[in-house]
Amino acid sequence: MPQKIVIIGGLVADHDRAALIAKLKAASGPDYDWDWLKAGPTENWRPPPKLFKSFLWTIQQEPMQGQHSPKVVILHCLNGDCKNQVFRILGDDGILAPRELADGDALVVWLLAPEASLVPSREWNAGPKTTAFFCILAKLLRNRSFNKDMHGHYWTREADLLGQAPVYVDSRPEVRGEAVSLLRQMEGILLLTKGGNQGTTKKEWSIKMSSLSVVKQAFLTRSLRPFEVFKSLEPLMHALEEQPTKLYPLHSIISERVLTVCREGC
């Protein structure tokens, strides 16, 4: 499911609601669902009562499995009583927009900027270790290699995992080199493996079903942060916080097919 972001309040320079939402959707892509509970000066900066009541009820509910709580952006031009009601429910989770945002164009720029912490940059660059980490997972996601345990049926051979795109590409040999050592560190936490490289049973890999939702969220948010739930991954996460001398464009390397798999059930 896409992340819902609700803007509540008004702007000193009035802006068409539908046009503003269209700009945000075009810029942020399908992973975000925008809404604007608009208020104006003729209503003393109060949103429509029925919509506001429904909104207050919604933000008090626990999200259903696989869904996320909506993020709420509170504009400066919002009636004080309404603002207090929202903050009483959301507390520190309410996002207060800067008061100097007077028009729709300025609001759109701020909502999409890194300082708002709402939408990751459309560019996603990483060093060789982090690139290798996400490329391993991307290959397994693309192949739909995820299993509950060793008795599952959906695996990717290690030779294909390390010898094909996106892990192995002639122009980035360093990534493949990092991937070899990373596999061992991911084994048992994020990944399952079976077989061996001796004899007739080839070594194969898959994503653990119990970690699949976290893996998907990491791709959709373009972040390592979702992996913080796995304490046993802390040494690996520290290693990935590298100071690389070379960056790779993960936003180009990770295919739309992989992202489609990530959006399923999220």
Q: Helix tally? A: 11
Most strands sheet: 4 strands, parallel
Overall geometry: elongated
Estimate percent helicity.
40-55%
Assembly form of the protein: single chain
Mean pLDDT: 91
Q: Ends: how far apart?
A: 5 Å
Number of domains: 2
Spatial arrangement of strands, main beta sheet: 2-1-3-4
Class from secondary-structure proportions? alpha/beta
How many strand segments?
10
Low-confidence stretches: none
Radius of gyration: 22 Å
Describe the overall structure:
The chain contains eleven helices and ten strands. The protein has 266 residues and is of the alpha/beta class. The protein has two domains: 3-116, Rossmann fold (3-Layer(aba) Sandwich), CATH 3.40.50; 125-263. Strands 2-1-3-4 form a four-stranded parallel beta sheet. The longest helix is centred in the middle third of the chain and has 15 residues, at 128-142. It starts with a strand and ends with a helix.
